[in-house]
Amino acid sequence: MHDESLRSAYQHVCAASTCDCGISRRDWLRIAALSGAAASPLLRAGDAAAQTSKGDDVPVRIGYLPITDATPLLVAHSRQLFEAEGLRTEKPRMFRTWAQLIEAFVAGQVNVVHLLSPSTMFVRYGSKFGAKVVAWNHMNGSALAVAKHIQSVKDLGGQQVAIPFWYSIHNVVLQQLLRANGLKAVSRPRQSGLAADEVNLLVLPPAEMVSALASKAVAGYIVAEPFVAAAEVSGVGKVLRFVGDVWQNHACCLLTLAERDIVERPEWAQRVTNAMVKAQLWTRNNQLDTAKLLASSGEGRYTPHGLPVLSKVLVATEMAQYQRDGVIHHPAWNQRRIDFQPYPYASYTEALVKALQTTQLEGNVDFLHQLDPGFVAKDLVDERFVKKALQQVGGLKAFGHAESFTRKEVIAV
Q1: SS3 (DSSP) at 107
Q2: Edge-to-edge strands of the sheet including 160-163?
Q3: What pLDDT score does 47 carry?
Q4: Any domain includes 114
Q5: β-sheet bridge partners, residue 253
Q6: Are residues 279 and 201 in the same domain?
Q7: Is residue 19 a part of any domain in this protein?
């Protein structure tokens, strides 16, 4: 497809769906302002919204970005799994940016969201809003896409590479890959000169990444699906590495609730988590039906993506070819392109805190360097609800995992 045609097509999709899915510098400043006095009006609005409904009668108000990370939320809504738990639901609200989603969450406009795993730490400890992780939303589901002439990570030296957000597993893993290959991540205006061992990180909305790669504005990008699959389907790029092939079975997005809802409505939080766990299990066993449900041609029209792109991610039929092509470095891990498992392992949270403390980020990061990994694993995450929900579906073994709530993190660049 011609570059300009591709750009127009993606701009059309973005406009039609009101989805940018990423975060601009202006959005980042909006998120960074969500602390102290600046956050007070939103916090007061959130408290007021929380008080309008009592007990378990509060409706489920989902906020999401149309990426495959949101799959369990949308499956649970489409299949009326919340209603099966005795809850009322409203139509899920699709947001353009992470900033808008976080603002709506803090203000109580939505109360069930998926947030990037590092972002949950920023919201709780940087913005000082009572966000609580109750489960993982999914595993893996991201990749590094590059122009077709790029053959290795080292070839990214002196190039521009896009990320969706500073506080993302994408930024963390990309910088791990760069360091392992003798490259340094920098953050400079796009016109700045770069040394041969420097890689300039640019924050771009995922919906702009495919066209940016096609127009050679960037040499690659790392992002949640299906925007990597979109580059493959459109023929403008290829997968260089899967993020899950670097950090085994990592969590990208997490099911996040407001602490006030958990304290005031613990049974409501339990029912929400029950529905999400059942949605994840159904998704694992009904991959093609899930792609159809999420597609722009589906009844719910939850995302602007076509079925071929979503199927490439969810149906997971091509992993053997990626292995033959050398894209997969750890075939023994035997992973799906995206997978679903709800338990929030403490080891992952601890490892993520440590990784963030050595990752280049923008904004005030003083709070991050004061965090104790063990404390965060216990304070940020409330595992009570997901443990009970797992008992209803046969435990972790129903998801193909060992029946243990501990594991060892494996990171192999």
Answers
A1: coil
A2: 184-186, 198-203, 160-163, 220-224, 142-146, 238-242
A3: 54
A4: yes
A5: 116
A6: no
A7: yes
> Is 178 in the same domain as 64?
no
pLDDT in tens, 326-346: 999 999 999 999 999 999 999
* Contact criterion met (CB below 8 Å) for 294 and 302: yes
Under 8 Å between Cβ of 143 and 230? no
**Same structural domain for residues 146 and 126?**
no
Give the CA distances from residue 409 to residues 126, 247, 305, 352, in Å, rounded to whole numbers and listed in that order.
25, 8, 33, 10
CATH number of the structural domain spanning residue 58:
3.40.190.10
Res. 240: pLDDT tops 70: yes
> What is the torsional sign of CA 382, 385, 388, 394?
negative
Quick one: average pLDDT of 394-399?
98
Both tokens of 137, joined, read 């939303």
- Residue with tokens 């203000």, as numbered in its chain: 107
Q: Which domain holds residue 204?
A: 141-245
Of residues 100 and 344, which shows the higher confidence score? 344
Whether 55 and 110 share a structural domain: yes
What angle, rounded to 10 degrees, do the helices at 266-285 and 384-393 form?
Answer: 50
- Counted residue by residue, the chain has a size of 413
Q: Does a structural domain hold residue 218?
A: yes
What is the total count of domains within the chain? 2
For residues 336 and 140, the answer to whether their CB atoms sit within 8 Å is: yes
Tokens representing residue 334 in the block: 């035997």
Q: Do 120 and 205 belong together in one domain?
A: no
Residue with tokens 């099966």: 84
Which uninterrupted H or E stretch holds 64?
A: strand 62-64
